[in-house]
Amino acid sequence: MSASERPSERRGAARTAVVWETLRPILGDGDTSAPALDVLDIGGGTGGFAVRVAGLGHRVTVVDPNPDALASLARRAREEGVQVASTQGDLSDLAQSMPEAGIDLVLCHGVLELADDPAAALGAIARVLRPGGTLSLLVAQRNAAVVARAMAGHFGQAKALLDDDTASGRAGRRFTLAEGRELLGGAGFQVVSVHGIRVFADLVPGSLVDLESGAAAALVDLEHEVAQRPDYLPLATQLHLVATR
Ligand SMILES: C[S@@+](CC[C@H](N)C(=O)[O-])C[C@H]1O[C@@H](n2cnc3c(N)ncnc32)[C@H](O)[C@@H]1O
Questions:
Q1: Secondary structure string (H, E, C) spanning 75-103
Q2: pLDDT-based confidence at residue 5 (cuts at 50, 70, 90)
Q3: pLDDT for the residue numbered 138
Q4: Cys staple from 167: which of 42, 98, 173, 224, with CB 3.0 to 4.6 Å?
Q5: pLDDT over 70 for what percent of the chain?
Q6: pLDDT tens-digit profile of 66-120?
């Protein structure tokens, strides 16, 4: 069974397809003669994004506090035959681990939720970006977490989460779109695009996507269709905000 035929890969594709499509033009749109970018993947973990971006010819550095994740990243990069630099560090010491204004694109996917101080973290990211550089920010959306709690019958938890902007549990903090915009504006970013990620992917039973022929591709298609429709944005598990400074 090839990677793309594996159920877990198909479900992963449904979750990340819209993010990749949004990043495509920034990463050169498949044009191998486009200039290589300096890319920082902060909290890049095991390199799901970083290795693929490096495979497009860009110079990628992953900064992550977890040494096990960095070891998996190194293995994955070796297997794919690409170079990815890595440093053990985190959002709070970015100024020490990265030079100022040297990065074209920062990926901050699923990490701002875990920052002690999201405003300070975005300020640190702004400092490592070149003027005109781009931030790809993927954050958990609070609305969707409320819906998920309610659908699981945890009504008290859903109610408590409605206005809770503090970090809790392993998932950390969750953001509304207004909070995301305000944080980015406060750090000097202009938001260029907003996409809803995983509008349906987490609501659909996994077995349906795994077993029904063509379902995974149709789900990806549907996710693309709704990602920028304002009516569907509040349902998305994650928000993908692309911003420049
Ligand atoms: C949910 S995973 C996301 C991994 C990857 N960015 C992705 O989208 O697949 C969160 C990652 O953030 C890292 N992390 C946790 N706290 C962090 C912090 N304060 N600064 C930077 N990275 C952090 C974790 O080690 C983990 O690799």
A1: HHHHHHCCCEEEEECCHHHHHHHCCCCCE
A2: low
A3: 98
A4: 173
A5: 96
A6: 999 999 999 999 999 999 999 999 999 998 889 999 999 999 999 999 999 999 9
Residue 190 tokens, joined: 């202009």
Give all strands (DSSP E) within the chain, no chain letters: 38-42, 59-64, 84-88, 103-109, 129-140, 190-197, 238-244
Give the pLDDT score at 35: 92
Tokens 């990490």 locate to 111
167 φ/ψ angles, rounded to the nearest 5 degrees: -75, 135
pLDDT per position as a tens digit, 155-213: 999 999 999 988 777 889 999 999 999 999 999 999 999 999 999 999 888 888 888 88
Nearest to 91 by CA among 127, 130, 42: 42
Distance 213 CA to ligand 1 centre (A): 33
Please give the DSSP secondary-structure letter assigned to residue 58. Answer: -
Residues in the chain: 245
Specify the residue with its C-alpha closest to ligand 1, atom 16. 114
What atom in ligand 1 is closest to the CA of residue 64? Answer: 22
CATH for 7-43+90-141+173-244? 3.40.50.150
**Closest Cα to atom 6, ligand 1: which residue?**
44
**Ligand 1 centroid from CA 111, angstroms:** 5
Decide: residue 34, CB within 10 A, 0-12 exposed, 13-18 middle, 19+ buried.
middle
Domain positions in the chain are 7-43+90-141+173-244
